Amino acid sequence: GAVVSQHPSRVICKSGTSVKIECRSLDFQATTMFWYRQFPKQSLMLMATSNEGSKATYEQGVEKDKFLINHASLTLSTLTVTSAHPEDSSFYICSARDFGRGGLDTQYFGPGTRLTVL
Amino acid sequence: KQEVTQIPAALSVPEGENLVLNCSFTDSAIYNLQWFRQDPGKGLTSLLLIQSSQREQTSGRLNASLDKSSGRSTLYIAASQPGDSATYLCAVKAYTNAGKSTFGDGTTLTVKP
Questions:
Q1: Would you state the pLDDT for residue A1?
Q2: Is A107 an 8 Å CB contact of chain B?
């Protein structure tokens, strides 16, 4: 199957700093990527849809000025958590949308990034 | 708005048992349904993906079924092993251009040796 990578896998930062997380599709081009957040013992919640060359679409309740998304190329989307606070500590997972395999719409998930804000 | 429910929330079984995990969804207009496994502190491992036109998919000891009309999917695990212990998530993908997926809360499975 297709491969999606995330970097870093784990990051610890001080409150008030900004953190950038990268999501890359390694062997296919993805015009659409999705960003999810998962709190401990909870399921994945979609934060936003990242569209190559255009603005991201945010889910209700997600602050677009706090979670900046840039999808500058067909293989890279970045999520920047600005002025991070302890309540932003979470597991962030991206997925990339691929239509290349028989024309089927398939999502491939990255391994996740564990963010801890002190 | 699509809602996905997984029952039970937690399940503990002795090794060797066959078991069934359930996933239900409210909007039957789906593109596909996918079952994942998640180990503690780790990302998602895709287990089975069922397209809306399919009724079931099988991989090894796993079998997933899909009944769109009733809004249900089941994941059957045969001859469970301690290594099967994990959280199992189902995700339903919408049949729209947006292609968003909605996840259930998961079933945490413990298989005791």
A1: 66
A2: yes
